Amino acid sequence: MIPEIEFKEKARTFNVPISTIERDYAQNWLLAHLPKMAFKGGTGIRKAYIKNYRFSDDLDFTLLEKISFKDLTNKVKKAIQDTKNASGISFLDDVKSEKVKNGYVINIYFRILRSTGDPLKIKMDITNKENEIIINPIQKKNLIHIYSDKINEQINVYTLEEMFAEKVRSLFERTRPRDLYDVWYLHKKITFDKTLFQKKCKHKKVEPNIDELATRKTNYEKTWKRSLQHQLPELPSATDAFDEVIEFLKKII
């Protein structure tokens, strides 16, 4: 494991809480040992495609094969033990897993620098194979690890284009500032695949409605800083990001 001073230096460099760095570090080591699943979401962008993208609290996956709840939980517990042995991170034995509408949620707890108080948490959101459609071929990408110890592992991950399409779809399914931020950032970096987006929407019966989305502007503004300020050194204005995304959506939908 890296020394305590490196955690503190990274926190200063990126102007984020030291707990954000601890979680980012633990996520990397865990990803190197988890069973084969398709990695996606904002953390997938950071860990596979864009170095120094925003930090993230959760790990999002889609299962590539059917697996029972018991078997999945056991595989994750084994991965935690393997990670503990390889990294020296103190993962707790108390793993909380539950079935949810689209798959499973597994909460993993650990300690690195803090020996007292509540442990830090990594939340795994795992979607069942039948509840999501994966259109582009899954990519094998080197795990981006910004720390001085080395992790030479590859991870199975969505294409960036498919993650972008899912993020745009998410705007019409829920109100989470991280989705808005990701769409705001990605629409300036990569080309939007409208056909891919339409297929993703069709699979989950999502009807994009920009007028309805526009009514939720205040909700994004109220939760913007609380949700994202610990993940970024500089946070754009929620109002500006929202307005820019709405204009983008009007052009492509």
Walk me through this protein's architecture:
This protein is 46% helix and 16% strand. The chain is an alpha+beta fold and 253 residues long. Strands 1, 2, 3, 4, 5 and 6 form a six-stranded mixed sheet that branches. Strands 7-8 form a two-stranded antiparallel ribbon. Strand 4 (96-100) and strand 5 form a beta hairpin. It starts with a helix and ends with a helix. The mean pLDDT is 97.
**Share of residues in helices:** 40-55%
Assembly annotation: single chain
CATH class of the largest domain: Alpha Beta
CATH fold call of the largest domain: Nuclear Transport Factor 2, Chain: A
> What value does the Rg take, in angstroms?
18 Å
Structure class: alpha+beta
Strand content: 15-25%
Q: How many structurally independent domains?
A: 2
How would you briefly describe this protein structure?
The protein is α+β, with helices and mostly antiparallel strands and 253 residues long. It has 10 helices and 8 strands.
List the helices and strands and how they pair.
Blueprint: H1 4-14, H2 18-31, E1 38-40, H3 41-48, E2 58-62, H4 69-87, E3 90-91, E4 96-100, E5 103-111, E6 120-127, E7 139-142, E8 154-157, H5 160-171, H6 177-186, H7 194-204, H8 210-214, H9 217-228, H10 238-252
Parallel strand pairs: 2-6
Antiparallel strand pairs: 1-2, 3-5, 4-5, 5-6, 7-8
Helix pairs in contact: 1-2, 3-5, 5-6, 5-7, 6-10
